[in-house]
Amino acid sequence: MRARARDKRWLAALLGALGLALPLAAAAEEPVVVLAAGDIASCKSNGDEETARLLEELPGEILALGDLAYPGGSAREFAECYVPSWGRHKARTYPTPGNHDYRTKGAEPYFAYFGASAGRPDQGWYSFELGPWHVVSLNSNCDEIGGCSPSSAQGRWLAADLAAHPTDCTLAYWHHARFNSGSKHGNTKEMAAFWDILQQHRADLILSGHEHVYERFAPQNAAGRADPNGIRQFTVGTGGASLRGFGTIQPNSEAHSGAAHGVLKLTLHPASYDWEFVPVAGADYSDRGSASCVRGPEAPPGH
Predict the structure, then answer these.
(1) Exposure check for the chain: N or C terminus, fewer CB within 10 A?
(2) Distances (CA, A) of 31 to 24, 34, 135, 175, 243
């Protein structure tokens, strides 16, 4: 799919020089809409019902960023808390597990509920395509899956997966935020190795939850240094659980709020993306913008 997308751009440029055009169906690819949030369902909160109503109104594929059923990820909590809210959108949901999902041994109810769409129960990582974008769901519960080093099973898989899927634009997501200005959890150093692998393959976006806030970072490298060829991270722990405040604001943090439940809406174009934080009804916070993918369109062979 991605090779075909590049071929279409090269062919469009060639035909344009000849005063011709591609057929309409081949000339452009429709953008893909993604809706993302984590830290979602608690039977003691109405936040998940409010964000679920947003999903009713917004088209797009859903990335559930972990901690889906509070507080312990039990089968009862999935059935009574997650299913009545975000569960209505299960058919278009791509999940990743959080630490609360693993409070029940092996996150068994999480994997039982989502089935094959969550990856193998002993792994919890997988990848897929959304339009011209390659998307990778990773498991950041490192102690549960044999670590998160480059030599771990997941680290080796990630490097191989990215090498096998070269593309102009790549998005990855997991639960524990690598960089985090929130008041409770801080940075997750264990995920630096995966960030580095992703940047080596020119990935563009990383989405996480864990801290119950919204935060957007400028592109940076795995050590937290600003880098125009780095990766932009969004933390979207605003899916319904109780919100939190901030501690020390981390370098490169460009926007942050703990005042509103909501979802991140991403519109994925062939070589760029738009973002918008969409708050629940009655909440007064927004953040939006656009950026190009790091790699950008590649030149045709021989140029």
Answers:
(1) C
(2) 15, 10, 15, 25, 31
